[in-house]
Amino acid sequence: MDIRQMQYLIEVARQQSFTKAAEALYITQPSISKTIRQMEEELGVVLFDRVGKRIELTDAGVILVKQAQQIVTAFQHVSAELDDLRNLKQGHLRIGLPPMVGASFFPKVIGDFHAQYPQITIQLFEDGGKKVEADVASGELDVGVAVLPVQVEGLKSFSFVEEKLNLLLHPSHPLASKKIISMAELEQQSFVLFREDFVLHDRIIAACAREGFQPRVIYESSQWDMISEMVAANLGIALLPETICRDVDQSRISILELASPSIPWNLGMIWREDRYLSFAAREWIRYTRQELKGIDAP
């Protein structure tokens, strides 16, 4: 068994699909299927339980993937250190971004970084903040963006955005005439939230709980524009960061300042504290720390 086979195995397990794994690795689906089959024959165990189009790791597969991740990570550390010694200034960077963050802050930053380091390839993974934290901690991602403070131990960070959440509601809503509103006044409202894998989902529910009520959630989404459209259709209220509110159609949606208490939205770049960082990762952290300082999103 070699490193390439282990990488194929890990990607299939992560994607839970041979087809998606092949696309992510830029190889053909038959090639990756053949590799997994050869591994199963070599080891004398079944690694994936194939049920129609769905696949799941078997007990043997779980054990092998866990060990393979450690071996591949160690191999990547060796390769990265050797590259740094040769001062190649090239590499591959895996960045995790929550969907609502990427479009607002990073197109120009990524473009400028690529212009300065054209030999560094960048792969973006769009997931909720909880998933980004977990994947940075596990080593599946080199760096990521998350809502601070992070919940996973062993992560370092620097902050680049400090904002608050605003309330979005339909212009005909009885509360729309207000300028400032408290959480307690929202007890009887229907909420449109981000999905559970987003940190804001838990933050908003916790803020409601502190005011003595459980929010009535009618819809959850991973896309802020879908959430705002639900509000524009008068189906519920939403709480979104100030940056996102700047892009909302205010002819169809009223935006109120949330106070008593406010809900902070602090974004930070995160990375593993105890893990060797490649040249690409170190330069990304250095570059974004400088470029994102005092950023004023459009």
TrEMBL record:
GO terms for molecular function: DNA binding. The keyword Transcription regulation applies. The lineage of its organism: Bacteria, Bacillati, Bacillota, Bacilli, Bacillales. Gene3D superfamilies: 3.40.190.290, Winged helix-like DNA-binding domain superfamily/Winged helix DNA-binding domain (1.10.10.10). This is DNA-binding transcriptional LysR family regulator. Residues 1-58 form the HTH lysR-type domain. Belongs to the LysR transcriptional regulatory family. Keywords: DNA-binding, Transcription, Transcription regulation. The keyword Cell inner membrane does not apply. It comes from the Bacteria.
